Amino acid sequence: MKEFKVSVCVLQATKLSVGLNGNFMAKGETVSGTQIVEYKDGCILWNDNLYQELSFIPQQKDATIEVYDVKIGINFHWERTETQTFKGAMNMLADNGKICAINILNVEDYLISVISSEMKATSPLEFLKSHAVISRSWLIAQIEKRRKLLKNNQNNTFFSFHKNDHSLIRWYDREDHILFDVCADDHCQRYQGIQRADNPAVIQAVNETRGLVLMSEGKICDARFSKCCGGMMEQFDACWEDVNMPYLVGKRDVINPDADAYDKLDLTEENDAKQWIQSNPPAFCNTSNYRVLSNILNAYDTETMDFYRWELTYKQAELAELINKKTKIDFGEIIDLVPVKRGKSGRIYMLKIVGTERSFTIGKELEIRRVLSTTHLKSSAFIVQRNFNNAKPPTDSVPDSFTLKGAGWGHGVGLCQIGAAVMGESGYGYQEILSHYYPGAQITAIYE
Questions:
Q1: Helix/strand/coil (H, E, C) string of 349-392?
Q2: What would the pLDDT profile of 294-343 be if each residue is shown by its tens digit?
Q3: What is the DSSP letter of 289?
Q4: Residue pair 111/202 in contact by the 8 Å Cβ criterion
Q5: Integer Cα distance of 441 and 213 in angstroms
Q6: Is 53 within 8 Å of 92 (Cβ atoms)?
């Protein structure tokens, strides 16, 4: 098998400008410098002409493309814009009222940027190697899945939600990427150009794992990862479609745990989940070592340091307005937030919102996080505390505020980035890290 090429959407906008550093071919002519591209009448407007598609193809090995005002961390608390620089070709496609700027490059070049974009290049080398393997695995699994869907004309047959009068169960995956393989933000994997792709340690990690992927039952693993599992990994089906992935399971973020009280807890049960979330169990990702964290996390990720356990309080009016805005449903005042179903890590994947006007159940994991935050709640592994200013009233009374006490950051499925980095810092090899987070999966070379 040869090395794959990947198509990455780096920006979608009605108008964008790019800087061509070097000579590029576009519509039969050699161009360089700043180019303005706009969406108009379902087409691409460039140099006063309309096109169905437009490609800037480099004519020199060292030619690069600068894309201005690229939004990163979309809808997260640290969302911002920056100028990013890319190698390879840049295709422009008109879609749904916007221009998609799609970078085409080799998988291994893409991975060098991804590893540096996801975590700092000062991370332990064995952790960087493990991340190279899982990022490669996840990417190629998505490329193959998309090609299969396109071949079978199935892109319009995937429904990522179930809705009726009483509930909305929705999950967010990447089947909506029809024109390209992956996007460049956290929805897929962070890919922020070559300015984050020149660190020798990252280049070494990618080169030394070239072509290596995780495989299970003869297939390349859909190797998911998140920032911090909170001490317990989650199963795939708590966050996405109801499919069993034998290597994405709920398990403690420790190796050979002692028979402690935490091992006896069933976090799908409410009382056990409460005990877990309100405690401080040992785990690789249970660290407050700022030196380690600052070595592995990008600056905008260290703006929030309460990864393992966190707390958030909403006033009644604040929460009611937020839920109303996010769901487009008038609940009236919020009486309660009731966990209906929890996954193996204690993450809620069905939550009943009880209001004075109506009740409604939402899921899965990310939908709950979206509804209960102006950006994204850190995770759905939380317990709900109803607060009253006066003496404890009847159950159906309206609380003055709600406190959410939670565990972890992200969906918790697969590799826990903070936990894996701590493992690398502690002397574990990348094979041991991958074996811990993807039990039963095998490391396999699919190209040289």
A1: EEEEEEECCCEEEEECHHHHHHHCCCCCCCCCCEEEEEECCCCC
A2: 777 765 455 566 889 999 999 999 999 999 999 999 999 999 999 999 99
A3: -
A4: no
A5: 10
A6: yes
The DSSP code sequence of 99-161 is EEEEEEEEHHHHHHHHHHHHS-TTS-HHHHHHHHHHHHHHHHHHHHHHHHHHHTT-TTS---E
Contacts of 147 (CB under 8 A, 6+ apart): none
CB contact at 8 A, 400 and 370: no
CB 82 within 8 A of CB 74: no
Element (H, E) at 295: helix 290-296
Alpha-carbon distance of 448 to 438, in angstroms, equals 23
Q: How many residues does the chain have?
A: 448
Compute the 3-state secondary structure of the chain and give helix, strand, coil in percent, each to the nearest 5: 25, 35, 40
> Which amino acid belongs to residue 139?
L
* H or E segment and range at residue 318: helix 316-327
Over the range 115-133, which residues count as b (16 or more CB within 10 Å of their CB) and which as e? bbbbbbbebbebbbbbbbb
Q: Specify the pTM.
A: 0.87
Closest-CA residue to 349 (of 158, 80, 152, 167): 167
Q: What is the pLDDT of residues 120-137, one digit of tens each?
A: 767 889 999 999 999 999
Amino acid at 240: W
Name the nearest CA neighbour of 168 among 319, 320, 328: 328
Instruction: Please report how the helices 417-425 and 125-151 are oriented relative to each other, as an axis angle in degrees rounded to 10.
Output: 140
Residue 100 structure tokens: 């998609």
Query: Which residue is listed with tokens 């703006």?
Result: 303
Contact status, residue 130 vs residue 213, Cβ threshold 8 Å: no
DSSP assignments along 381-441, one per residue: -EEEEEE-SSS---TTSPPSEEEEEEE-BS--BSEEHHHHHHHHHTT--HHHHHHHHSTT-
DSSP assignment of 155-192 equals TTS---EEE-SSEEEE---STT--SSSEESSTTS----
Answer whether 175's CB lies under 8 Å from 160's CB: yes
